[in-house]
Design goal:
Length: 259
């Protein structure tokens, strides 16, 4: 019997690559995206709780089960904390964090029935907080903590939960970032310099297909850890984040992205 998966943000970037890798691995994959329109590509806004619940029910009604959820939906904003509108930060959380929460809440009763798995896509920006992208880092840090807590809550039901932290990935995410240079005169041009450096790193980053293959591999593991980083470079960065004193780590990050 083929396993049934839902991948959010599944029509572009890491989500699309993951959906393709899972399909190649034998899963029947349904994607949630704002665009939607095809039989297994459902039009779902993850900020709409009723729409999310309806879509998950539609998948289970069609297939009779649900084995895997991969939460990839998200976007980025950048700018100085001082000049970022609170409403913009809240909108980011509504998609990146609470969008994931809504999907998982709707999916959990069905995953309990199959002993299924949840994979939440986080970022290395969670343990390594990025200046001028503070709110994005915060959404990903929240995903990590949520995933670890939920893993313990769901474990007695045979449901496993993990968060996977990509680093720089060459996708349309970079072009779609909502950038604000408000206050850059006050900050001496540091906002735009920081974001420009980050975007260069992203454009030269890992192809999304590599990240998708990694996520599909995690989906197929017998057991999973609470957190994963994709690629040895980013595993090393995450290790440094654990080992270095906070002052030293933040000084290094400042040298890279706050000059």
């Amino acid at each position: 019997m083929k396993k049934i998966a839902i991948v959010t943000g599944g029509t572009s970037g890491i989500g699309l690559a993951t959906a393709r890798a899972l399909t190649a691995g034998g899963y029947i994959v349904y994607t949630f995206s704002r665009r939607g329109g095809q039989a297994r590509d459902l039009s779902v806004d993850v900020t709409d709780e009723a729409a999310v619940a309806s879509a998950v029910s539609q998948v289970v009604a069609a297939e009779g089960r649900l084995d895997l959820v991969v939460n990839c939906a998200g976007f980025g904003i950048s700018g100085a904390v001082e000049f970022t509108e609170t409403a913009d930060a809240m909108r980011l959380f509504d998609v990146n964090f609470f969008g994931m929460v809504r999907v998982n809440r709707a999916a959990l009763p069905h995953l309990r029935a199959t002993g299924g798995r949840i994979i939440n896509v986080s970022s290395v920006a969670a343990p390594v907080a990025i200046p001028f992208q503070a709110y994005y880092s915060c959404t990903k840090a929240a995903i990590n903590d949520y995933s670890l807590a939920l893993a313990n809550e769901a474990k007695p039901f045979g449901v496993s939960v993990t968060a996977v932290m990509p680093g720089d990935i060459a996708t349309g995410f970079t072009a779609a970032r909502e950038k604000s240079a408000a206050g850059d005169d006050v900050y001496g041009g540091r906002i735009q310099r920081s974001v420009h450096k980050m975007e260069l790193d992203e454009k030269n980053g890992m192809p999304p297909e590599a990240a998708g293959a990694y996520l599909a591999k995690i989906a197929g593991k017998r057991r999973v850890k609470g957190l994963y980083a994709i690629g040895w470079t980013y595993k090393f960065f995450c290790l440094l984040a654990k080992l270095l004193p906070v002052r030293v780590l933040n000084w290094l990050v400042g040298k890279l992205y706050a000059q």
